[in-house]
Design goal:
Cytochrome Bc1 Complex, Chain D, domain 2; two-stranded antiparallel sheet; binds heme C; about 240 residues; alpha+beta
Length: about 240
């Protein structure tokens, strides 16, 4: 019986691993793949703010639409650039060669980014851009030092500055400050925006998770019903033994 309990518990453990391995303190993000509205907002943010540089070349627009409950019409209106077909892969229009020239590196494909970097890392990274006049893009990041990516969400977040303290000879990061009136969103709203974005990236890394959720319910229901004949059969077999 104990074996069954362990098996049952194992089924309940989510497939996504959450491990932090950076030296920077990571903020925790609440990922909820059942929140379709959040995933839809995340998908819109992704195509408006990320797809110009990054691809998600393992996904197709219509698959995302089907999984997240977005109609073809809304996919075309809100998620796609002109000329794309609904069955196309989500590929950036930026030629890799130009990207290399402009940024020094090609922006990586983000299909599996939530697996190679965990969700807490992504969440903290997206919130940790700060103004740095010494950097070519004008931005730097406390989680990813000297990153070549600019803060693409600065209009929402505002001009964020990193405040450092000196401890002896060392300059240690203390906290962030945002120039007043520069962001369209409050810090709380911006946190929710990044949560939606990370939620979508986690989905993107494993789209089948949503299908598994649906199947999982039926499997557990089936096993539960199966328990009844199994129990009756066990009683029947053991009757002669006792
Ligand atoms: C203007 C182009 C551009 C846009 C737009 C952009 N990025 Fe980037 N991004 C880059 C570049 C270039 C890098 C590589 C940085 C490096 O290696 O220094 C990068 C790196 C990243 C990384 C780190 C990947 C890794 O693990 O090395 C993540 C995560 C990321 N981007 C997420 C996003 C998200 C999410 C968006 C949309 C909100 C976005 N990016 C929009 C250019 C862009």
């Amino acid at each position: 019986m104990r074996k069954h309990v362990i098996l049952f518990m194992a089924l309940l453990v989510p497939a996504v691993g959450f491990t932090a391995s950076e030296s920077v303190d990571l903020e925790e993000v609440y990922v909820n793949l059942r929140d379709k509205a959040s995933l839809q907002r995340g998908a819109t943010l992704f195509s408006n703010y990320c797809l110009s540089c990054h691809s998600a070349a393992y996904s197709r627009y219509n698959r995302v639409g089907r999984d997240l409950g977005i109609s073809d019409e809304n996919i075309k209106k809100n998620l796609m650039f002109a000329g794309d077909k609904i069955g196309d892969l989500m590929v950036s229009t930026m030629p890799a060669k130009d990207a290399q020239k402009w940024f020094g590196v090609t922006p990586p494909d983000l299909s599996l980014i939530a697996r190679s970097r965990d969700p807490d890392w992504l969440y903290t990274y997206m919130k940790s851009f700060y103004i740095d006049n010494k950097s070519p893009s004008g931005w730097n990041n406390t989680v990813f030092e000297n990153v070549a990516m600019p803060n693409v969400l600065f209009e929402l977040q505002g001009n964020q500055r990193a405040i450092y303290e000196t401890h002896g000879d060392e300059k240690v990061f203390s906290h962030f400050e945002i120039d007043e009136g520069t962001g369209q969103q409050t810090p709380e709203e911006f946190d929710l925006t990044i949560t939606d974005l990370v939620n979508f990236l986690v989905y993107l890394g494993e789209p089948a998770v949503l299908v598994r959720y649906k199947i999982g319910v039926f499997v557990l229901l089936f096993l539960f019903i199966l328990l009844i004949p199994c129990y009756l059969m066990k009683k029947e077999y053991w009757r002669d033994v006792h």
